[in-house]
């Protein structure tokens, strides 16, 4: 999980390990995608309530991208969530990630809201 997420999102492994530890909770499920017992990707789902699930931290190892794993992972998780009777499935994605947006839209997701996040380095604060 740490390797996949840190490589896919460009974060350090120590930051990623800390993040995954801090966000571990019963309402958040992590699915690990494997091919021949070798991890290729992961996707996390947070149940907000009995009807709403949020997909996040979805990634495929960069060395495994472009082989259809992303579409298969996402399709399977959406099927699982529908089988669990979730009436709303949300996802979080960086809006500049056009490949991800294209994948999500090809599976049936629509853009309904867009948020821009701003970051400043702590060193920059006076």
Outline of the structure:
With 126 residues, the protein is of the alpha+beta class. It is 34% helix and 25% strand.
Describe the secondary-structure layout.
Blueprint: H1 2-9, H2 13-22, E1 28-35, E2 38-47, E3 52-60, H3 69-83, E4 88-91, H4 98-107
Parallel strand pairs: 3-4
Antiparallel strand pairs: 1-2, 2-3
Description:
This protein is α+β, with helices and mostly antiparallel strands. Helices cover 34% and strands 25% of the residues. It has helices spanning 2-9, 13-22, 69-83, 98-107, and strands at residues 28-35, 38-47, 52-60, 88-91. It has a four-stranded mixed sheet with strand order 1-2-3-4. Strand 3 (52-60), helix 3 (69-83) and strand 4 (88-91) form a beta-alpha-beta unit. Helix 1 packs across helix 2 (13-22). The protein is globular.
Per DSSP E runs of 2 or more residues, the count of β-strands stands at 4
Biggest β-sheet description: 4 strands, mixed
- The helix-and-strand class reads alpha+beta
Q: What is the CA-atom radius of gyration, in angstroms?
A: 15 Å
The main sheet orders its strands as 1-2-3-4
Strand content: 15-25%
Helix content: 25-40%
Mean pLDDT: 86
The number of helical elements comes to: 4
Order of helices and strands: HHEEEHEH
Q: pLDDT below 50 for ≥5 consecutive residues: which ranges?
A: none
Cα-to-Cα separation, first versus last residue: 36 Å
Report the principal-axis shape. globular
Features:
single chain, 126 residues, alpha+beta, 4 helices, 4 strands
């Amino acid at each position: 999980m740490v390797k996949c997420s840190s490589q896919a999102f460009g974060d350090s492994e120590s930051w990623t390990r800390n993040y995954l530890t801090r966000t571990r909770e019963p309402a958040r499920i992590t699915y690990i995608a494997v091919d021949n017992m070798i991890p290729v990707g992961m996707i996390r789902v947070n149940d907000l309530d009995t009807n709403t699930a949020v997909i996040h931290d979805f990634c495929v190892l960069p060395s495994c991208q472009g082989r259809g794993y992303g579409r298969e992972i996402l399709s399977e998780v959406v099927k699982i969530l529908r089988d669990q009777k979730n009436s709303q499935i949300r996802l979080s994605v960086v809006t500049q990630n056009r490949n991800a947006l294209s994948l999500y839209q090809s599976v049936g997701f629509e853009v309904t809201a867009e948020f821009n996040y701003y970051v400043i380095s702590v060193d920059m604060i006076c």
